[in-house]
């Protein structure tokens, strides 16, 4: 028997960009999500304006995306779903031995969350959910895993900071993250994560904020135990050596009958993945690629306008194509 989703609900009004932006916070089977109402009166209840579902990266809470999600919700509903293992985990929802934060588990929880939040968003004959999906870094790999398990639920897919392979420098960064988390050193992890994720020019320009604001905010918003478990199940060689490795998922997607309209994005000076490896991924999938000039790995935060334009130009709402299945 499938357990019923337990959800908590909270509404609040935020004053942003001169408008009162309403969002709703959910927790569904341990996954936190934030729904941003469409700000346009003409599109607010039109389900042809498909929901835009955003999955953040490692150590990014839903609040990290408030600015981007608020702007993107001007013409459509936006749902931001936090990866399992991210944030401060209540003891009741986390067990270091049994909690499953693997990519397929992340994808299954994402589906359950979307079913709970969008119970009436059924556009095809078999009643499937239908959304546009946007993933950054870890969120991009979760998006690919979701497309493996629920390909009929996705029309447009936009993935940032994911390649066929990580760079050698990227592997070293991950080793540093893991070492900090094993020592329960969240401040050390925060420093390593920020230095790995942004370009040198951006870090220099923001240097006064890093120690004063960003390090405390990041280190106080997460559980070392939860992030370590997440890394062990999604960022290790053992975790990647299965059908949910990027290479396996890409090969499966390239041969799949169900078409997903995909687009890739990467920062020009990303040190976690290389532009060449992302180009290789784009060639295998026959997807278009956007390279954001001068940006590091954290493109959505470092170059918000360019990244947002890439997402919104790709995820334009069009009528769903008719199925060719007989």
Q: Would you mind describing this structure in some detail?
A:
InterPro entries: AB_hydrolase_fold, Meta-cleavage_hydrolase. This is AB hydrolase-1 domain-containing protein. The chain is globular and about 45 Å long. The protein contains 13 helices and nine strands. The chain has a nine-stranded mixed beta sheet, sandwiched between helices. With 326 residues, it is of the alpha/beta class. It has helices spanning 66-72, 103-117, 138-149, 168-182, 186-197, 200-205, 207-219, 224-234, 237-240, 246-255, 275-285, 299-302, 304-314; strands spanning 7-16, 19-28, 31-36, 52-55, 78-81, 131-136, 154-160, 261-267, 288-292. Mean pLDDT is 85; it is low at 1-19, 43-48 and 319-326. Helix content is 40%, strand content 18%. It has one domain (7-314): Rossmann fold.
